[in-house]
Amino acid sequence: MENTLNTARLEPVWHTNRRIMLLLAALALFLVIFPLFGPNSFYLHLMIMIFMYAVMAQSWNVIAGLSGQISLGHGLFFGIGAYTSSFLFVEYGVTPWIGIFIGMFFSAVIAVLIGIPMLRLSGHYFAIATLLIGISFQLVFQRWEWVGAASGLWIPLTEESSWLALQFHDSKVPYYYVFLAFFIISYFFVWRLSLSKIGFRLRAVRDDYQAASSLGIDVSKYKIIAYAISAIVMAPMGSLFAQYILIVDPDRMFNLEISILVLLMTVLGGIGNIWGPLIGVAILIPISEYSRIYLGGTGGAVDLIFYGLILMLICIFRPAGLISLFPKHILERKKQR
Amino acid sequence: MTFEIILQAIVSGLLTGLIYALIAAGLSLIFGLMNIVNFAHGEHLMVSMFSSFWLWSLLGLDPLVSIPITVLLMALCGVLTHYLLIRYILKAKMLIQICATFGLSIFIRALAQFLWTPDFRTVDKPLLEGRIEAAGVFIGQPQLFASVVCLLAFVMLYLFVTKTETGLALQATAQDREAAEILGIPSNRMFAIGWAIGLGCVGVAGGMMTNYFFIFTDVGVNFALFAFVAVALGGFGSIIGCLYAGIIIGLVESLGGLLIDPSFKLLYVFAIYLLVVIYKPQGLFGRY
Amino acid sequence: MKILSVENLSKSFGGIHANRDISFDISAGEILGIIGPNGAGKSTLFDLITGYTKADSGKILFNDNNIFGMRPDKISNLGIGRTFQKLKPFADLTLLENVMIGSFAKESNIKNARDKALEIIDFVDLIEKRHHFARELSTGQRKRLELARAMAIEPKLLLMDEVTGGVDQKTIPGLVDLILKMKAAGVTIATIEHNINIIMEISDDILALDQGQRIAYGKPEEIQKNDRVIDAYLGTVDVA
């Protein structure tokens, strides 16, 4: 027995196995040099959307996959991020780089304020409450004159491309790198988080909150932490997207479809697994962008028919997501640890 | 602001409240039975309104006449929902159950938009039209009739659940699935019946509403949200609770709209939801 | 030295007395056995002590701290660990991760938490299963998991709810040895047990409950001779 324990000690502390690390490094390298191949602006746009939604879906994965709470109004924090940075730029000329961080801060504050009363609710009650709150925010912003009400905020164009104002008029490449950077940082952050003490404790809360509290875990506190972290991951995407399309309005930024998409992508790829959202996004975004091109204006509804159908099929046949189709030995850390 | 205006708001709040109550009763019945929230409830309402609309526009059947057909169609829709989707996710985690019915709602709404476009439609010259006046208060005839029918449907639903053999079997299944199975009550069939009745309620409400409401693909969203609130307010699974809760919501909506600002009607109702679930999570009226 | 003292603890659910005026003490380093027929209020007693259910009245002192009405996580942080009668493993986590979550109560460094968890897993003899998901373990293994997890918070007092219940006969001696090993390691233990032979063998004191009330409290030999205990409980069991 002593021997087994010693071997157990020598096993490395949690890390994804070497093959995956190599794969990821290769992927990261490819993404960094991708613009050098001179892709046209559609492909750049496609990649930007993939990065953006990958982060957004990961944000949802933090609250749903790590702490087990279902938020049906998660687009809320996207909107908060977008409005904060844009408002600061439009009204006070504050550079979006600072606006992004203030947006993250506001999102976290709002998440805590919502979370304190609401995360005592469990399951269905919480899900419905988040749905209502998401819609309420859209409603309030549609009528709030200070932030432009229904017509929203138009971000004034700078004369030429500017890193300070985060606006690039002649090429999508700078946007590509900005989104890529946030994508890598967010994924690295969530990956470290999931392997930290907080990550472990969150998963404990998800699996059994009573057992968790018998181990000294303040369940409500940890749920609020997860909600706030999730908001912090989501908010910068709102800010960046606002810079990308240079307009912020309630129907776009607080759209219920955002909340639907992040849920769908995560569940499709595999909820609770860090790579799940990425897989879901890598499948759905190209489909959605291509269908927008080939099906034109009516593409929207066809998209949604398809999304709804996939969501149901996944729930019936693969509740663990597409990632569960991968051969076990590649993914499971079991034998390598 | 005169007394009449307030009275008018109370009366119309009461009338819409009864509709909310019936829609919520369907949701509550399904939840009480199998612990699943039907996030597609609003879309089912929309489908029932469209069914009533098409029966009128294609076959010339007045919404009043076609109610039995609509109810039957919705009941069938409920059975299908159970056998095609819900049956497979009964044992899944709650997260997956929520995603599945949420998926169903996206699917139905998008399909409706694809098939019927997002246009607003109305039924011209239904049998019931116009309004009556009593004590300075105007009451739309279709609204009044709808409320009476909803109340009637409510009474029937209550009698069915508490007095008939099938109703008691439903209750037994709701309380303890395994024990009911041992007593020879097939839970799967009970669930299908529950869905049929739950959506049947929606069929009644939808059929009546076609008389005086716009028919469009997003019509169900707000009604479903109010139904969620009503169910939480009334205590998840309680049918009588839904009746009170529906009326409370109707009143809050119309009085809040009158006294504060009509564009934030939704917010008042949401505020009530949050207050209730946070301070009295078992609902205002308890279970059954 | 008294580590836990409970005085006149009462709880009723809608008119039914689940616990009524229960009083007892546990001294440091001892094993207190709690016996009683089904529905006697044993598990409720644990829920009251650990804050999962709020008592109506009474006093609970742990190391002279009043823990009456405290939240479960606070009570746990003071040093009371527990297992659950209806097992509550973190099903989608591995055994090692389960126990690590326990050791995070005292240890923030991930490597140290892991080493400590491994030691405890070794202590409960499950080291080979450390990378198995909790849902893949047998009932007996899951009971050990719960014990390991509770031990990982380094409790001063450990409440064990039917550790030997529902496992096959072969594994019982191992679990009993484990309890004695824990005692030897200096943990104070209160254990709910149905198996009367085990309780007589391992307990320093015994508390007997029936219908929510204390019917006897004392050394095993006294309990064995107590008429009310024999009537309520032992009468139906063959005491060898």
At the fold tier of CATH, the topology name of chain A is: ABC transporter involved in vitamin B12 uptake, BtuC
- CATH class category name of one domain in chain C: Alpha Beta
Strand order of the largest sheet of chain A: 1-2
Major β-sheet profile of chain C: 6 strands, mixed
Tell me, rounded to a whole number, the average pLDDT of chain A: 85
Helix content of chain A: over 70%
Strand content of chain A: under 5%
The largest β sheet of chain A comes out as: 2 strands, antiparallel
Spans of chain C with pLDDT under 50 lasting ≥5 residues?
Answer: none
Oligomer: heterotrimer
Radius of gyration of chain C from CA coordinates: 18 Å
- CATH-scheme architecture of chain A: Orthogonal Bundle
What can you see in these coordinates?
The complex is a heterotrimer of chains A (337), B (288) and C (240). Chain A is built from 15 helices and 2 strands. Chain A has 337 residues and is mainly α. Chain A has one domain (2-331): ABC transporter involved in vitamin B12 uptake, BtuC. A two-stranded antiparallel sheet of chain A has the order 1-2. Chain A is globular, with a radius of gyration of 21 Å. The model of chain A is unreliable at 333-337 (pLDDT under 50). Chain B has 288 residues and is an all-alpha fold. Chain B has one domain (8-119, 144-279): ABC transporter involved in vitamin B12 uptake, BtuC. Chain B is 75% helix and 3% strand. Chain B is built from 11 helices and 2 strands. Chain B has a two-stranded antiparallel sheet. In chain B, 53% of the residues are buried. Chain C is an alpha/beta fold and 240 residues long. Chain C has a domain at 2-87 and 156-236: Rossmann fold (3-Layer(aba) Sandwich), CATH 3.40.50. Helix content of chain C is 35%, strand content 26%. Chain C has helices spanning 42-49, 72-78, 95-103, 110-123, 139-152, 172-184, 196-202, 220-225, 227-232; strands at residues 2-13, 16-27, 31-35, 57-62, 65-66, 80-82, 157-161, 188-192, 205-210, 213-218. Chain C has a 6-stranded mixed sheet with strand order 6-7-8-3-9-10, with helices on both faces. A 4-stranded antiparallel sheet of chain C has the order 2-1-4-5, with helices on one face. In chain C, a hairpin with a 2-residue loop joins strand 9 (205-210) and strand 10. In chain C, helix 3 crosses helix 4 (110-123) and helix 4 packs across helix 5. The two termini of chain C are 33 Å apart. The mean pLDDT of chain C is 87. At the A-B interface, helix 6, helix 12 and helix 14 of A face helix 3, helix 4, helix 9 and helix 11 of B.
